[in-house]
Inverse folding.
């Protein structure tokens, strides 16, 4: 990411309405949706900030945008979308007409606090059971994928998980924005850089190129800040051929959705591999998926799933729930839609036609989950179970 000469303090001095939020550690994001429309995120919750008439006008925003892009080489007259890093590490995104209806500025502050895994456990953000599973997975050369939406705390959790890696190992971190804190003595940070107009489209560094280059720096562990595109194919290949105990994040709302999106990103590489082959590689690359979410302003782990494989006949992932957030006030657990949804997933895998309220025998369940096309024994049991249901069905028809 391109770095600018401006700092968040300078932006606050130029826009007095933002000044009081610059030193407020509880404010993680400052959002301006146009003249006079100011919002902040405080303690995980968005709130609107009243602005006096005549304050935070169009000229003020234009001057602030010019200050933010100072020294970066971007010109809003030719590039209406800008993403830069301020001098203090905060991220600033600017959208100007015609890309947006009004000049909009969003600043995500660079957190000054570095939370360890133990800190997250004490805060209630990371269940102790999940911490043990993540630590064991990493130390046994298993790779961990952290899923979640925007602002769900993926990077905070990723930072904590990086701290679980042995201090004696070599770590290579790949990011497009510097957000991962490194305490390991033998660590290398690589940063992507977008193509710039001022270089005539030259000088950019793609994340995919950095992933390939990483392998030449003898990493014990690879940490990719976020998977967004075709670099997923190179990450998967690197992980299935070694470099265990690696980590990455991805935008997804479910654990299975994270695996699907990872495979879709790998498909964008255009390597010509079939979908099933890519999915098998994804299942081999990552052993654990941890889903982070924000509910009512609280960021926490909601689910952890072990990846067992991929079933091409059904197009589904073979997973095992390691931990799931307990249900509250009679509501289904956050990690799933309750028992009924779980039954529907099983039914989708093996054609099971019973519901959660219908009694199921052990033999019937084994038949439902078994591979009825390969095992003669399960086929015989299936026919026997079906014959017991025919008389009842015939009576209903009569």
């Amino acid at each position: 990411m391109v770095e600018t000469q401006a700092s968040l303090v300078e932006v606050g001095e130029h826009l007095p309405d933002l000044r009081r939020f610059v030193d407020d550690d509880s404010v993680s994001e400052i959002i301006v949706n146009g003249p006079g429309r100011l919002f902040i995120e405080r303690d995980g919750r968005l709130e609107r900030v009243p602005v006096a008439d005549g304050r935070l006008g169009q000229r003020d925003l234009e001057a602030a945008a010019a200050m933010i892009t100072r020294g970066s080489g971007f010109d809003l007259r030719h590039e209406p979308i800008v993403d830069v890093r301020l001098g203090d590490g905060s991220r600033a995104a600017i959208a100007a007409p015609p890309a947006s209806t009004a000049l909009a500025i969003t600043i995500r502050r660079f957190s000054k606090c570095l939370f360890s895994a133990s800190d997250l456990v004490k805060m209630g953000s990371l269940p102790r059971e999940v911490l043990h599973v993540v630590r064991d997975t990493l130390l046994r050369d298993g790779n961990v994928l952290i899923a979640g939406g925007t602002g769900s705390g993926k990077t905070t959790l990723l930072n904590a998980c990086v701290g679980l890696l042995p201090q004696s190992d070599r770590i290579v971190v790949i990011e497009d924005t510097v957000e991962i804190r490194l305490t390991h003595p033998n660590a290398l940070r690589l940063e992507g850089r977008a193509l710039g107009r001022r270089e005539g489209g030259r000088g950019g560094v793609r994340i995919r190129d950095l992933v390939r280059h990483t392998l030449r720096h003898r990493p014990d562990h690879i940490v990719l800040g976020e998977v967004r595109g075709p670099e997923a194919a190179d990450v998967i290949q690197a992980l299935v051929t070694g470099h265990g105990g690696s980590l990455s994040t991805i935008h997804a709302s479910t654990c299975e959705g994270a695996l699907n999106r990872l495979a879709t990103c790998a498909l964008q590489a255009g390597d010509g591999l079939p979908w099933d082959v890519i999915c098998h590689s994804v299942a081999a690359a990552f052993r654990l998926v941890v889903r982070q979410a924000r509910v009512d302003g609280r960021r926490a782990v909601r689910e952890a799933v072990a990846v067992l494989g991929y079933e091409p006949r059904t197009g589904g992932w073979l997973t095992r729930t390691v931990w799931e957030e307990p249900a509250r006030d009679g509501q289904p657990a956050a990690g799933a839609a309750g028992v009924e949804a779980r039954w529907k997933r099983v039914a989708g895998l093996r054609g099971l036609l019973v519901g959660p309220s219908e009694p199921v025998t052990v033999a019937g369940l084994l038949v439902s989950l078994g591979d009825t096309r390969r095992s003669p024994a399960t086929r015989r049991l299936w026919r026997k179970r079906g014959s017991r249901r025919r008389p009842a069905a015939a009576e209903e028809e009569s």
Observations:
- The domain at 117-336 is CATH 3.40.50.300 (Rossmann fold).
